[in-house]
Amino acid sequence: VQLVESGGDLVQPGGSLRLSCAASGFTFSSSAMSWYRQAPGKSRELVARISSDGVSTYYADSVKGRFTMSRDNAKNTANLQMNSLKPEDTAVYYCAGAASWGQGTQVTVSS
């Protein structure tokens, strides 16, 4: 199993970023996928989850209405569109699925 995140960057408050997770080594279309994040000094927290067919999603209250998770089962990718970013969104963002984790991508929201 391999999960590779990309798209992290430094962005100003109110800005947007799109994270992507490229998956391989398992049956992607049969697996729910999740995005987690971990800020310095804090525990890792679930941000969003999407069902294997993309029909059902879950969002943490802190990101609801600002973040949107999607997936493309033809391309084996899971994405996280992040809008109206806040400084408190600063964290390393991890893709998770098939009992595995990616290496993480840094998102920094700062002016």
Task: Walk me through the structure.
With 111 residues, the chain is mainly β. It has no helices and eleven strands. The strands form two sheets. Strands 2, 4, 5, 6, 9, 10 and 11 form a seven-stranded mixed sheet that branches. It has a four-stranded antiparallel sheet with strand order 1-3-8-7, with no helix packed on it. Strand 9 (91-97) and strand 10 (100-101) form a beta hairpin. It is globular, with a radius of gyration of 13 Å.
What are the main properties of this structure?
0% helix, 11 strands, 7-stranded mixed sheet, 4-stranded antiparallel sheet, 111 residues, mainly beta, single chain
Map the helices and strands.
Elements: E1 2-6, E2 10-11, E3 17-24, E4 33-38, E5 45-50, E6 57-59, E7 67-72, E8 77-82, E9 91-97, E10 100-101, E11 105-109
Parallel strand pairs: 2-11
Antiparallel strand pairs: 1-3, 3-8, 4-5, 4-9, 5-6, 7-8, 9-10, 9-11
Low-confidence stretches: none
Mean pLDDT: 97
Topology as a string of helices (H) and strands (E): EEEEEEEEEEE
Proportion of residues in extended strands: over 45%
Overall geometry: globular
How do you describe this structure in short?
The chain is mostly beta strands and 111 residues long. It has strands at residues 2-6, 10-11, 17-24, 33-38, 45-50, 57-59, 67-72, 77-82, 91-97, 100-101, 105-109.
